[in-house]
């Protein structure tokens, strides 16, 4: 049996999404900037997708900038807003558990004289809005707090933070890549000014995403070379990809409610049965977490052995750890929770998806039992 439980890393393209994309590789392959009929046809498809993406998050179509994915969206949000606000201040507030796309964009700015405050999280991985509020300074020009963490699935109090960033007129960015299409997301409810998303995390193609930029939020374009996307992102539009993103979100909205409750039940069963194993711990918040995310640590094991052992059983999982110079460094997210080193480096992430069935969860739990017992015996 082969069981894919790594949907936080990527998802397969929904066949309906692929079907919608295919003509734009061949008979409808115009450049959306061209004035002729082929170009106009591509432009119409891009506009339709833009309206779909905007509707998904309660934005206006003109506020959607198509990108190559959430990594680019995060970079454009952080670097673009920072450069636009340079004259007013050079301080950014973010959290310790952001995706590397946000963290490394911040590091780039730090190397150039900016100051970045990394707000800590509690032992469940949740940021306290008061901590964010207290770290604001007169020269703060951007706050970036992710909506849902990709490793431990914790949901952040984005709307509460949005309330005071709005009051103080500070642009507020959220990386909502894991949340868009999984649960309702509204840019006005969240009071965010910028929001990142990616198609391939929601059964769309890899290499395409979007950044919501609220009207009136100054952003200096990072990718130069054309007036595409209203001058906010140069480069010929990835028409098939953009069409795929639009179709993927349309389908996601249709199945959202049903999938949310189905996945929550499967997730809770997986967590419950895994925690019956000796030396098992749940990482992240038990309640405020994505419906598809399970992150566990097992005493006397290590992430690499868990992931490789599960792979031998045909179960795809993730360690979240980065392999630095041959040794496994525990993930910055698990470290930020303040977990003991042994537990942070013995974590495995299992993320469920649309294709995940009850019998797959049964199989995965059996595999997990076997792998943990084997590692224990070998130690
Ligand atoms: C996957 C992911 C990204 C990166 O998205 P890409 O489209 O693969 O570049 C950024 N942030 C979060 C939270 C993610 O889960």
Automatic annotation (TrEMBL):
Positions of transmembrane segments: none
Domain Aminotransferase class V: 3-361
Gene3D superfamilies, per the entry: 1.10.260.50, Aspartate Aminotransferase, domain 1, Type I PLP-dependent aspartate aminotransferase-like (Major domain)
Uppermost EC category: transferase
Assigned keywords, A-Z: Iron, Iron-sulfur, Metal-binding, Pyridoxal phosphate, Transferase
Required cofactor(s): pyridoxal 5'-phosphate
EC assignment: 2.8.1.7
Catalytic activity, as annotated: (sulfur carrier)-H + L-cysteine = (sulfur carrier)-SH + L-alanine
Entry similarity comment: Belongs to the class-V pyridoxal-phosphate-dependent aminotransferase family. NifS/IscS subfamily.
Protein name as catalogued: cysteine desulfurase
Organism lineage: Bacteria, Bacillati, Candidatus Sysuimicrobiota, Candidatus Sysuimicrobiia, Candidatus Sysuimicrobiales
């Amino acid at each position: 049996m082969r069981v894919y439980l790594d949907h936080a890393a990527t998802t397969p393209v929904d066949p309906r999404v692929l079907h919608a994309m295919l003509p734009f590789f061949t008979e409808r392959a115009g450049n959306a900037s061209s004035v002729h009929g082929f170009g106009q046809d591509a432009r119409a498809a891009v506009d339709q997708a833009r309206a779909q993406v905007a509707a998904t998050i309660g934005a206006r179509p003109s506020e959607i900038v198509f990108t190559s994915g959430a990594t680019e969206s995060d970079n454009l949000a952080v670097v673009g807003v920072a450069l636009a606000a340079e004259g007013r201040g050079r301080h950014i507030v973010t959290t310790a558990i952001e995706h590397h796309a946000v963290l490394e964009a911040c590091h780039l700015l730090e190397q150039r004289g900016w100051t970045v405050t990394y707000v800590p999280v509690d032992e469940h991985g949740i940021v306290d809005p008061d901590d964010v509020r207290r770290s604001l300074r007169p020269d703060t020009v951007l706050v970036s707090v992710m909506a849902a963490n990709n490793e431990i699935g914790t949901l952040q109090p984005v709307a509460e933070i949005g309330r005071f960033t709005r009051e103080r007129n500070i642009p507020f960015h959220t990386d909502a890549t894991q949340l868009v299409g999984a649960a309702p997301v509204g840019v006005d409810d969240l009071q965010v000014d910028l929001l990142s998303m990616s198609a391939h995390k929601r059964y769309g193609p890899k290499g395409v995403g979007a950044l919501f930029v609220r009207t009136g939020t100054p952003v200096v374009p990072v990718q130069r070379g054309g007036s595409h996307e209203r001058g906010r992102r140069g480069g010929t539009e990835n028409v098939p990809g953009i069409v795929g993103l639009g179709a993927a979100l349309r389908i996601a909205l249709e199945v959202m409610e049903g999938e949310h409750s189905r996945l929550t039940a499967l997730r809770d069963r997986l967590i419950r049965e895994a925690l019956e194993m000796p030396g098992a711990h749940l990482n992240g918040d038990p309640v405020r977490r994505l419906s598809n995310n399970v992150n566990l640590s097992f005493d006397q094991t290590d992430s690499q052995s868990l992931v490789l052992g599960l792979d031998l059983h045909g179960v795809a999982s993730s360690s979240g750890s980065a392999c630095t110079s041959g040794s496994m460094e525990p993930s910055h997210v698990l470290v930020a929770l303040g977990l003991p080193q042994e537990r942070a480096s013995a974590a495995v992430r299992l993320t469920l998806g649309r294709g995940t069935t009850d019998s797959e969860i049964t199989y995965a739990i059996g595999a997990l039992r076997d792998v943990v017992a084997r590692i224990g015996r070998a130690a």
